[in-house]
Amino acid sequence: LLENHGMHELIRFIPQSFLPEEKLYSLPGFESLQIDSRKNSYTLHVKEIMQTLPFLLKELELSGIKIKNLECRKMNLDDLFLAMTGRNLDE
Hints:
By secondary structure, the protein is of the alpha+beta class. Helix content is about 30%, strand content about 30%. The longest helix is centred in the middle third of the chain and has 14 residues, at about 50-60.
């Protein structure tokens, strides 16, 4: 099901300061972006973490933005539901 929707892996991070989302659209392997304004977290859906992560870290460094939290993993069905509906299963 995940493969059918073209979503493979995700990178979720919380920056210490504001990050213009436009900087993320040109990252290699970028598929989509979700921003949770309540948690100030960014979730990048990417083709391959190893392809995108070095460029993301470099962009953050060049922008002088430090990150509080970073999570990289393969997508699961909960992630797909959130991407499709904009809400979690428990909401």
